[in-house]
Specification:
The protein has two helices and five strands. The chain is of the alpha+beta class. A five-stranded antiparallel sheet has the order 4-3-2-1-5, with no helix packed on it.
Length: about 90
């Protein structure tokens, strides 16, 4: 399921990103290429592959910091919940 906060691989772009918002037509993705932010781009779903929960604890911490910087409270709560699940408590 594509929803805000999930990580995706972008096919044929050698990049990953996280979904900022999703609609019927596609998703707005904050793109990271070669470890550096590459801005926001809209993709149709056939261009994306879900990365599931391949994130490490350190990557989740980085994501939590980013959600604070972006003032995304709801997303922050989702990330910290995933961190709790990963740590077993």
């Amino acid at each position: 399921m594509y929803k805000a906060g999930v990580w995706v691989k972008i096919k044929n772009r050698n990049a990953i990103g996280f979904v900022l918002e999703a609609s019927y037509h596609g998703a707005m993705v904050f793109v990271i290429r070669n470890g550096k932010p590459a801005g926001e781009h809209r993709y149709s779903y056939h261009q994306l592959t879900l990365m599931n929960d391949e994130l490490t604890t350190e990557e989740l911490l980085d994501l939590a910091r980013l959600t604070v910087d972006l003032n995304q409270k709801e997303w922050f709560m989702e990330v910290t919940e995933r961190m709790k699940e990963k740590s077993g408590g």
